[in-house]
């Protein structure tokens, strides 16, 4: 019997990353049995279920049904559910993706049980130690056995942090694999009524620093309203932001089309036809690069500096959004430069690393192989 590898899907941004690995595994000669474990952090059709088919994925194999609560409650309950699963059904390896609370919970639960962990999208750092996702990134990397970095500079940082060369691999960016796979279908999607190709900007906002206080969200809405005088904006709204808007009694300014969270293909279709995107999302910064779409990131820092270097992305203070939109419309938007390894082959490289570590033979070989992988890990 082939060893099981459990891939943990907690929230929406995990799915395009895991899809790249799952498709590459399906295309490779079988050497393991992938099992998708859904923790439940995002769980409705708009934020999770509807994305599976868009990404060519089936229903999760295991659903833990843990959602809601603050960071500590969600992390703790997810750890307990993961541990119960893996005590009963022990995988050879757990793959966690990105930086959400479910990612951290699963990584900690697995390692406490002595199960090796691979971190898909390892090594990202924005330097803002107060950002919940930055805490998760650092903690997950610290306990991971294999660290899959999206580029060489990120892999070098992980080595400098003390992870062993056997553990760290620059595999490329899994998000780009998924964009490439989905783009033909996404381009065939109809735009929401009232939008014409090239005649609007896309907007996504959900980071706590931007939306969790009336002052921050109010300032953001004012800036968005001023920017929308130059270019109509289409805003598929994250449930967190929608909740804050109604909690604070705020509303979307004129010139902004509020939309529900879109499915992966519809959202990619929206981006593909947009004039620009303004966002505080991590994944959208990468997708904008893939689409050669000017990206204005409404944050003081990014964990994806390679997109700044490539010219597709700019950090913009909230008060500077209007000027930044006007600049792009005036033609100040260089063509995105290539980024090495962002070539749609990240899934294949992850599979190659797994095969090296797991060996051809399965579970018996795995224990030795994982042991040597861990020896390279300073943590
Ligand atoms: N996304 C989507 N529908 C939307 C907005 C975003 O499918 O209405 C996708 C987007 O294509 C990207 C992912 O959600 O793949 C990014 O997730 P999010 O911005 O929630 O998280 P982050 O990347 O910031 O962690």
Structure characterization notes:
This is Non-hydrolyzing UDP-N-acetylglucosamine 2-epimerase. It is an enzyme of class 5 (isomerase). There is one protein chain. The protein folds into two domains: 4-172 and 345-376, Glycogen Phosphorylase B (Rossmann fold); 190-329, Glycogen Phosphorylase B (Rossmann fold). 46% of the residues lie in helices and 14% in strands. The chain is built from 16 helices and 13 strands. The chain has helices at 14-27, 45-54, 71-88, 101-112, 132-143, 152-160, 174-187, 208-211, 214-227, 239-248, 264-272, 282-290, 305-309, 321-329, 346-358, 363-375; strands spanning 4-9, 33-38, 62-63, 93-97, 117-120, 146-149, 168-170, 201-204, 233-236, 256-259, 276-279, 295-297, 313-315. Strands 3-2-1-4-5-6-7 form a seven-stranded parallel β-sheet, with helices on both faces. Strands 10-9-8-11-12-13 form a six-stranded parallel β-sheet, sandwiched between helices. Bound molecules: uridine-5'-diphosphate. The site of uridine-5'-diphosphate has 15 residues, from helix 11 and helix 12.
Topology:
Layout: E1 4-9, H1 14-27, E2 33-38, H2 45-54, E3 62-63, H3 71-88, E4 93-97, H4 101-112, E5 117-120, H5 132-143, E6 146-149, H6 152-160, E7 168-170, H7 174-187, E8 201-204, H8 208-211, H9 214-227, E9 233-236, H10 239-248, E10 256-259, H11 264-272, E11 276-279, H12 282-290, E12 295-297, H13 305-309, E13 313-315, H14 321-329, H15 346-358, H16 363-375
Parallel strand pairs: 1-2, 1-4, 2-3, 4-5, 5-6, 6-7, 8-9, 8-11, 9-10, 11-12, 12-13
The protein binds uridine-5'-diphosphate.
Domain UDP-N-acetylglucosamine 2-epimerase: 32-354
Enzyme class: isomerase
Keywords: Isomerase
């Amino acid at each position: 019997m082939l060893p099981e590898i459990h891939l943990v899907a907690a929230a929406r941004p995990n799915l395009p990353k895991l899809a790249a690995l799952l498709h590459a595994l399906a295309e490779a000669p079988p050497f393991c049995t992938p099992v998708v474990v859904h923790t439940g952090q995002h769980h409705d059709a708009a934020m999770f279920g509807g994305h599976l088919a868009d990404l060519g994925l089936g229903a999760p194999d295991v659903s833990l049904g843990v959602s809601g609560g603050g960071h500590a409650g969600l992390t703790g309950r997810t750890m307990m559910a993961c541990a119960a699963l893996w005590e009963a059904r022990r995988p050879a390896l757990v793959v966690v993706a990105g930086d959400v609370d479910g990612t951290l919970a699963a990584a900690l639960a697995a390692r406490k049980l002595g199960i090796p962990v691979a971190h898909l999208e390892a090594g990202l750092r924005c330097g803002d130690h107060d950002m919940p996702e930055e805490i998760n990134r650092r903690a997950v990397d610290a306990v991971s056995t294999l660290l899959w970095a999206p580029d060489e500079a990120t892999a070098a940082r992980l080595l400098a942090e003390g992870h062993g060369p056997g553990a760290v691999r620059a595999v490329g960016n899994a998000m780009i694999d998924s964009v490439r796979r989905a783009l033909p279908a996404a381009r065939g999607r109809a735009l929401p009524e009232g939008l014409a190709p090239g005649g609007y900007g896309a907007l996504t906002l959900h980071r706590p620093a931007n939306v969790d206080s009336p002052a921050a969200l109010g300032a953001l809405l004012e800036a968005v309203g001023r920017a929308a005088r130059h270019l109509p904006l289409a805003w598929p709204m994250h449930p967190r932001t929608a909740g804050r808007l109604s909690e604070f009694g705020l509303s979307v300014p004129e010139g902004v089309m509020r939309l529900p969270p879109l499915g992966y293909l519809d959202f990619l279709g929206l981006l593909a036809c947009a004039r620009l995107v303004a966002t505080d999302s991590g994944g959208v910064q990468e997708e904008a690069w893939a689409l050669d779409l000017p990206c204005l990131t409404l944050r003081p820092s990014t964990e994806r500096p390679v997109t700044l270097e490539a010219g597709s992305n700019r950090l913009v203070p909230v008060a500077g959004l209007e000027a930044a939109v006007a600049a792009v419309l005036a033609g100040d938007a260089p063509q995105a430069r290539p980024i090495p390894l962002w070539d749609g082959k990240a899934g294949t490289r992850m599979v190659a690393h797994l095969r090296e570590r797991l060996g051809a033979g399965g579970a018996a070989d795995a224990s030795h192989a994982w042991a040597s992988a861990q020896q390279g890990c300073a943590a």
